[in-house]
Amino acid sequence: MLDLMRKHARNWLMKLILGIIIVVFVFYFGSMSGRNKAERLALIDGRPIVYIQFQNEYQNLLDMYQQKLGRSLTEEMLKGLNLKQQAFDNLINQEVILKKAEDMKIIVSDEDVKKAILAYPAFQRDGVFDKRIYEQTLRASKMTPEEFETSQRRFLLTSHLEGLIQEGVRPSDEEALDFYRMQKEKLNLSYLQVSPAGFVVGLKPSQTELESFLKANEGKFRVSEHVQVKYLFFNPHDYAASVAPSESEIQEYYERHGDIYKKKDKVVSLADAHDKISAEIKVIAGRRIAMEEAKNAHDAIYQQENFDAYAAQKKLAVQTTGFFP
């Protein structure tokens, strides 16, 4: 039995790592209800594995590989990874571990769950648990506190069991020696390096060879989709120039903003602030007019689908961005 555990000790560690990843990623997906939640894919000793669990686990694995490999992750690599089978195997392993934890009467108390949640970095501000952040995070993930506490309890159960198993694994002297050799053993190696660059000159692939290579390696040459945006810009300064504030408007603005112009240590008279207030009123009016013009343009173009015609009619310059992904 110990030999078997030694052989698979590394697998237990990997399951523990995957367990941690599952808890971290649970916020990206939240909880779901409805028909999908009830679609059973497997039954492990009376425990159902439902479709939504599989879907979340698959997405967790996909996100993990995308974060690690970035753009170098191709469709061919995804096929080779066989993420669907990995996700299904992970769910089965989790259920088996949880069942074993129950058989061994490993219990996670409410206090243990509470301590784990209080220590969760995502719920802390300046190193202290923040209940508001906790509730906001769960709401954003469409998850109730009860659902998250259940996922934490499952994770803690798994961790306790795997810890017990790892503590019981003792490598033999032969295994320790093999590991030492693997880490420390050195070789004297003689080799001959041949550079492909020396054979490139004179080679000229045919059109058929080029087309065949492209077809077999489409992922290497695929460029992400790019877009270009046309838009109309309503500049508030253009409209502000046509605004002429009345003396009563300037007087009202001066009185309304007395905290700026009338202070205990210094009072700015209306005459001194007159030009500055006039300029500020123009800017505010220009913004309002620009917003109204933009809204009118949006409504007209949305209904009539006449972007270019509207721009020509209103003598507006059409702005165009460059291409971007």
Highlighted features:
325 residues, disordered N terminus, two-stranded antiparallel sheet, extended
Verbal overview:
The chain is mainly alpha-helical. The chain is 64% helix and 6% strand. Strands 1-2 form a two-stranded antiparallel ribbon. The protein has a two-stranded antiparallel ribbon with strand order 3-4. A two-stranded antiparallel ribbon has the order 5-6. Strand 3 and strand 4 form a beta hairpin. Helix 7 crosses helix 9 and helix 14 packs across helix 16. The longest helix is centred in the last third of the chain and has 35 residues. The protein starts with a helix and ends in a 5-residue tail after the last strand. The N terminus is likely disordered.
Secondary structure: elements and pairs:
Elements (H helix, E strand, L loop, with lengths): L1 H6 L1 H21 L5 H4 L1 E5 L2 E4 H19 L5 H7 L1 H21 L6 H9 L5 E2 L2 E2 L1 H10 L4 H24 L4 H12 L22 H10 L1 H4 L8 E3 L3 H5 L6 H10 L1 H4 L8 H35 L2 H7 L4 E3 L5
Antiparallel strand pairs: 1-2, 3-4, 5-6
Classification by helices and strands? mainly alpha
Uncertain runs are 1-10, 12-37
Mean pLDDT: 81
The helix fraction, in percent, is 55-70%
| Discrete helix count | 17
Q: What's the story with the biggest beta sheet?
A: 2 strands, antiparallel
How much of the residues is beta strand, in percent? 5-15%
* Order of neighbouring strands in the sheet with most strands: 1-2
Alpha carbon gyration radius: 33 Å
Distance between the termini: 55 Å
**How many strand units?**
6
The outline comes out as extended
In short:
Helices cover 64% and strands 6% of the residues. The protein has 325 residues and is mainly α.
